Amino acid sequence: MTELTIYELSQSGRKGVTFPEPDVPLTPLPEDFLRESLHLPELSEYDVVRHFTNLSKLNYSIDGGFYPLGSCTMKYNPKINEEVARLPGFANTHPLQPIVSIQGNLYLMYQLQEWLQEISGFHRVCLTPAAGAQGELVGALIIRKYHQVNNNNRRKKILIPDSAHGTNPATSSMTGFKVTPLASDSQGNVDLESLKAECDETLAGLMLTNPNTLGLFDENVEEVIRLVHEAGGLVYGDGANLNALLGVLRPGDIGFDIMHFNLHKTFSTPHGGGGPGSGPVGVSEALSEYLPSPIITIIEEGDEETPPFFGFYKPELTVGSMKAFYGHFGIHIRAFAYIAMHGSKGLRDIAEKAVLNANYLMTKIKKDYVLPFKRTCMHEFVVEGAWVDLPDVHALDISKRLMDYGFHPPTNYFPLIVREALMIEPTETESKQTLDAFAKAMNAIAREARENPELLHKAPFTTPVRRCDEVKAAKDLILCCWVPD
Amino acid sequence: MENPKELKYTKTDEWVKLEGDLAIVGITNYAQEQLSDIVYVEFMAEEGDSVSKGDAVATVESVKAAADVQFPVSGTIAAVNEELVDAPETLNTDPYDTGWMMKLKFDDPAELEDLLDAQAYDAYNEEREG
Amino acid sequence: MFTPHTPQEIEEMLKVIGVNSIEDLFVQVPEKHRFPELNLPEPLSEIELASYLKEISSANASTEDFISFLGAGAYNHYIPAAVDMILRRGEFYTAYTPYQPEISQGTLQATFEFQSLMTELTGMDVSNASHYDGATTAAEAANLAYYFFRGKRKKVIVSRAVNPQYRETIRTYLQGFDDVVVTGDEETSKAGYELQDLISLIDRDTSIVLIQYPDFFGRVIDYANLVEKAHSVGALIAFVFNPTSLGLLKPPGAFGADIAVGEGQPLGIPLSFGGPYLGIFTIKDRLVRKLAGRLVGETIDQDGKRAFVLTLTAREQHIRRERSTSNICTNQGLMALAATIYLSLIGKEGFKQVANLCYQKAHYAAKRISMLKGFELAFIDTPFFHEFVVKTPQPVSQINLRLQNHWILGGYDLSQAYPEMENHMLIAVTEKLSKHDIDDFIAALEEVTGD
By C-alpha distance, which of C164, C138, C339 is closest to C257? Predict the structure, then answer.
């Protein structure tokens, strides 16, 4: 089942897609700058198509099956999104065209900004950030700049709950902040006493994921936000889990100052085997001039006859440019299409079914797995992937065994505060039949763990490759193919 | 593997051996077990550098984790065990002897008073394991 | 819309959970703000959506209908049909980061092949699995240098001939490090134009020097002396390259670059109004532990079969948290796949052809334009690849507006980013333009600037 690499398949002298000879008079090449050799593969078009088709078959995907990867929101990616993003009028526009020639693009982006504002309750949205992590970077930079502008240069402390994604602390230190972890209480909420103890004049802000990575809605969220605001800090919302809140709660309404969206989670744009993502950022009115540049704006209002004329706006106190151009426009189109197909009721239906599915699945498997927090969950939940009386069985074993049952494993070993965590997010697009089948597999694995643990230790048996030697990979470090000299 | 009685320990899982005005530091057996297969060691300070108590002076990486190593006392780096760079697995196989990491000439012995002895460190580990 | 639940199933599920209604699952949400009515348009069916978006897209003028001479960081190249056909396989685009290697070998091997192609193209040792875009790779290169010197070197030198958007992004990324100074590209600086001025800025406090190759004005400059000076004081040197040019030109690795980064969009990725694109991030071996982003390595599985895994993950944010050098999680997976397919399809011969076509056509265009009344090349005697600067007899924006009536998108107006370059147009020519297109452009330029 292994596939040769493109370099191993290459045959000297074979040609794929070729180009015509120049139709212009020739100019001599710059001798001093020419490279000696360039070893690219030599393959026919058919070789290439077959190679990548074969590779694709080695992948697990949403199109192929249930993908309950917690905190990643692996929902179905509608096919119409792929069609519309490739419309020639979108796909073939150059980012530096005169704005009069790209009014369609600007209209779409403007509309998407407006819709995201409406969905989240924020005053202004910037679509530029390339991914969730970059959206977070924007958030941290805004917090930093806000305190600078207000002459609070002592505010260097960012509070981050111990259940948070690793990007939160990484982002904070990239932007010169000092990270202070915040404990969770016995219910999985932010521990209010710990929070109060940290609310002082060095506090810059709090980064909060709500629902948190345990899949729990923080019951004290309003109090948490109030405490941070009273201490002069800002509250950043990690929008990774927005799927649970569509049409349910607008984070801006309860006082979040900044939040990033993950269009590739909540708004169904494909994960692409690890990107491209898209991480727009929304902010409150007080912070609206800090957003990255550019924002799409109406330069000239329209009337019944003529549409408005759109252009770019650079916020006055902007933290700067996050990347070249205006963000992942191709992804913006897909998210636009998704929202346009749902409307207000449709969005609420997404959150409702996501939460219904998660609670149903949690109920179905909780008799066989330890549930660290016994509360109604939101769109995902965490169980312990291990049992006290079976010290040799680990979350990793359960994950690997699930593959033999035809499922993608949940996120494992995260969040860090649950031992042997398995984080399960079914999403709203899965049917009851699929959830039942998954629950059955989980229950069967719990049984196997007792009756035949070797099955779990040695799993998977049915996959293209089996457990891989990661120590060897890290020690021997082979990071590219053998290339002929 | 037992924690040698003659060594001192930190709550951040370093062992410390005192020889005159030299402190030798390494990672404990508990630390190497937590990290599992160690694949990389990087020294962030070199001989002659002066470092403060608590500064990260080295990093140890396994496949799934990374840990910083620090001295529990301020002073000047006197030696670095460069052999670990090519054989990081020594930290797994022999953490208390050939797996020593750095030596430091310390300034103020009073800073060493908080260190745990082997018995206290054992108790600390049992408590963490719960 | 995409929720499959029947009313009966919902009832059954609620019963299993032990609640009466779906609303009961949301009681923790503050009641006052629960279930807001969102002011959004009525939902569209698929057929309505398709025609709505078609209508929106037709409000644009695209390079489909216009002859385009725009480059400046995004290039209109031919994309072979097979690239998109393969990208559309759901097995690729609906998968996620290959955390579980047993069921992700497709993505992992393709990424490993991408890394291989990028190191070969650039002459560097290691490539990561890709980054957001060219601008962010340049910023991450500066960030890497900061961590490489543990914050001890405070000076980041950037040539003014580096893409202005990249320079802005570098500043955005570094603003958190209070004591770091970005210099060399100020409006008053000559360091983008005269290599010696750039070299003279380099000192022992310099962590990294960033230059572009070919530079933002399209020029191909011999950076050997600059590299030598940077290395003599221990500083790192990063090349921001254009991948197509490396079909002909000596790669950054051959100049001794420590880091080579660039925008991979020219490798089979549509213009798509600026994104999603592909950041290429390559380095010399000794920097590998400071490299941001994912890396795929070769290993074996428990049966001894070759397999690929994500490796050196202990560098990354999900393990190192506040001690990691970057916060990046994902890469541009699907875009890296596009570039891998593109380079495999056109291969050794085709890629050289593309680079040569760009070079030849651009030089033809430059020669013709320089003969027009009132036009001249801004940098005579400096070799260029497929982009060049011409001085124009009138403001560029004015010329471009008139060119649109001829179904032509003129070159980039440099005065937008360089106040010292009033009436300077940056023109890009790729293999997609025919001699006929170029001749039409020349005729149109003559007409719109004529008296």
Answer: C138
